[in-house]
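Field reference: sequence -> structure
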Amino acid sequence: MHHSVRVVYFYVIIYTTICIFKFNSAIMKTSMKEWFLRFKAWLQGLSFRTGVIVLASCIPFYILSFTQMAISSQYLAIETKGVLWVALFGMAKACQYGGLTILGMEGYKRVKGWLRGNR
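Structure field:
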């Protein structure tokens, strides 16, 4: 893995941890529904580029979640494969829905048009 990619992953993890601690205090003061609405509003306030990056990051997680099943049971226990599948597939879904929430309907239409060639 290239050094700059590792640095980006490191900063994403640090940023996510800070955001979790910020929202953790909000949970104590509000109900879960209010908290989710605030979290959704915060996600929608992020940039289009961030939404595209988060949405694109679901692709490697989907690939990893299914390709790890091809590894022989001799090297990786079946229980471990199940745990890996749940974790990786969950991350893929989280990235997918998080990216779509960040993009919103207009951003989704913009990405869809770009993929179809209507640049």
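Note: The mean pLDDT is 79.
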